[in-house]
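Work Package 4 report. The design task specified in the project plan requires that, given a folded chain encoded as structure tokens, an amino acid be chosen for each position. We show below one input record used in the internal validation round.
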């Protein structure tokens, strides 16, 4: 089905509350023209709204309208999970990610639509990030004095993958703060060039005893290890 984006976007301003935040909704609609878009599957994870007039779970018309609002041509910006993200994520390559973890999909990863359910992507992203922390940062979860707490995550679903495919999950760091780290995580299918999904995952390092952000920031050992997979790392650098 085709619809006019400009018309729907103008209608949306009448009901979209200025303080509304849509969290955890993947509206993956990339590379389409600025005036037309096709309907796309929406995979809900969680939602927080400040306006009772907005309920994407119950009103298909509002889902379609919001999908239209975030549609743009491939070089533009898209509205996904309440933040602006660059539409060029669909062009991510394996070489953009210095750490890659292989995962053989399981029979029960598939849902009734015969592809891996969207919730599994989040488990894989969490596992890949923590695998790097354990293997390269020396983080031992049961005894670590500084503990990474997830404070934000979202995923843009670009294409599906299904059992029995082998997934390749890439991890890099996009931003390092005093006590926080923002990862970008991508899922590829072995033997397929194009990326299947790209997500963002934010950790805040807290003191295990207090549950509060570490006063002096993350440890030097952890920071140095995370810098090795930073997106702006020196070219040719290896783990």
């Amino acid at each position: 089905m085709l619809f006019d984006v400009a018309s729907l976007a103008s209608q949306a301003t009448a009901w979209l509350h200025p303080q509304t935040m849509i969290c955890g909704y993947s509206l993956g609609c990339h590379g389409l023209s600025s005036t037309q878009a096709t309907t796309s599957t929406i995979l809900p994870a969680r939602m927080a709204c400040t306006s009772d007039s907005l309920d994407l779970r119950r009103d298909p018309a509002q889902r379609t309208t919001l999908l239209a609002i975030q549609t743009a041509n491939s070089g533009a910006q898209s509205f996904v999970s309440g933040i602006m993200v660059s539409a060029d994520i669909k062009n991510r390559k394996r070489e953009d990610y210095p750490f890659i973890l292989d995962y053989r999909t399981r029979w029960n990863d598939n849902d009734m639509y015969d592809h891996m359910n969207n919730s599994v992507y989040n488990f894989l992203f969490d596992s890949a990030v923590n695998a790097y922390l354990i293997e390269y940062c020396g983080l031992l979860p049961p005894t670590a004095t500084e503990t990474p707490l997830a404070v934000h995550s979202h995923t843009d679903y670009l294409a599906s993958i299904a059992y029995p495919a082998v997934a390749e999950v890439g991890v890099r760091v996009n931003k390092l703060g005093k006590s926080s780290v923002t990862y970008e995580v991508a899922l590829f299918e072995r033997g397929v060039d194009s990326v299947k999904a790209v997500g963002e995952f934010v950790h805040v390092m807290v003191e295990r005893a207090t549950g509060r952000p570490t006063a002096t920031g993350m440890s030097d050992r952890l920071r140095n290890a995370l810098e090795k997979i930073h997106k702006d790392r020196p070219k040719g650098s290896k783990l």
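The domain at 94-227 is CATH 3.10.129.10 (Thiol Ester Dehydrase; Chain A). Validation will be extended to a larger panel in the next phase.
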